Structure formats: structure tokens, C-alpha cells
Amino acid sequence: MEHACGKYADFEGLRERAVALRREGLSRRQIRDQLRVHNNDILNRLLEGEPPPEWTKRPNAKDDLRHRARELRLQGWTYDRIQVELGCSKSSISLWVRDLPKPERRDPTEQARLAARKRWEHEGAIRDAERMGTKATAMREIGAMTDRELFMAGVALYWAEGSKDKSYDRRESVVFVNSDPGVIDLYLAWLDLLGVARERLRFTVMIHETADVTGAEQYWTDLVKADRSAFYKTTLKKHNPKTVRKNVGENYRGCLTVRVLKGSDLYRRIEGWWSGMVVEAKRRTA
Questions:
Q1: How would you class 93 by CB atoms within 10 Å of its CB: exposed for 0-12, middle for 13-18, buried for 19 or more?
Q2: The whole model's pTM is what?
Q3: Least enclosed by CB within 10 Å: which of 104, 128, 171, 210?
């Protein structure tokens, strides 16, 4: 005690130094070490009334939760709904919002409906994440595509979506129509693989007359990287007021027709390739 009393005899002078260090932004530990004051009671007296610098304040992880809980309570949420939303205990929620007015009691069926919707949204988010994960994994499984793989894919794609010759309607022409930009990309890559010059291609946009026709024309022009001179006049589908269209919105751009000029010989080869694929498939399943 004699050492302590002697050491801290000039208390006011020591306090001035402690306050000055505090205002310079030093922490309690730094002030303690500089002044060699290891008695917490005396250190508290020396720093009395002096707030700690901002950098020494530890963030309270629950501050945001408390603020959000109060917001939800003011919106009329129950403790149960707030607990599901924020994932914190009811006891904490009770402490945070006990000064706020209680919400009006809702019809039990409405509460059940709201709870069911909340569960559905939560489960839906999980399913969406799983769905996207599966798609991403499958995409990586494709890897680099060989020329033969692209060739086979293009033949199958054309036979599924392209025009075909009929015994009652002779049309040995190569005409392909689709609304999916990815399908168009693959199809054009396939034509490049076959050595079809881009100068032999002609395009036609087909779209509903009430849609953004100009925007769609620009979209397809940019996608296929062709001059507008390679596009025929856009085909507009008349609006039927009795029908409710589902192909609406900014992502609706109609369909794109891709025609290969002087394509009769190419069409015959495509039909032959497809026939060969069918024969091979039958052989494998025999």
C-alpha cells in the first residue's frame, strides 16, 4: 500500500495525463501500460467521464437483430413470426420489443396461412439452391465439345426443329426456327462446322405485333452478328383479344428463322445423316 500511495500521490497530475492519452485514442490497456497503473479501481477513477475511442468499441452482433425485430413488431408481427424470420430466441425478442404496442390478434386461419407461406418460401429457396447446384454440376460435366459431338448434336437439333421434306410437299430447303438464343448459337456453330458461309444465311424475326418489335430485331441482329441486310421483313403475329398471352415481358423476343440459301444438297445430307443415326440407334437397342 505504501508503494501504491506513493506512486499515485499526484492523482490530479496522473489524471491529466490519462485523459490526454484517452483523447489521443489510446485504449485502457495502452494507458495502463504507459502510466504503469495496474490497479483497475484507480484506472477507472483516472478515466472517469472519458468515453472510449470508437476503434475500441466492440460491435454488438445483436444490434441489427434488435432493430429488425422492432421493425417487424411495429408491422404487427407475432413473436413466432419474428423468431422464424430472424432465428433468435423468443426471450430476446420479448426484451427488445416489450415497450412496443401489442399487434391486433389475427384470425388463426390467417396466421396459419402466413406461417405456411413463410415455410414454403424458405423451402423454395432451398430447392432453388439445389436446382442451381445440379445444373452447374451438369454443365461442368460437358467439358470441351469435339467436332464430332457438335456434328451429331447439330443433326439431331435440326431434325427436331428444322423444316423437313414431305412426300406430299417437296421442300428440300434448310430452314430452322427457334426462340431460344442458346439453341440458335449451337445451330450457327454447327453450320460453321459444316462449312456453310455466313453470307448464305438469311434471317427472319417472327414476333407478336404487341411486343417490342424494334428491340427484338436488334437483339437477334446482335446475337447472330449479322448485318441488317441479311434480315428479311419481320413477320408480325396478329393479336387476338380473346386470348391471354403468356409470352410477354422484356425477355420475350419472338422467334428467329435461319434459312440457308441454295440449301437443297445440304438438306439431303442432313436427312441422310439423321437416317444413319436412327439405324445405329436401332442396332444398339436390338
A1: buried
A2: 0.58
A3: 104
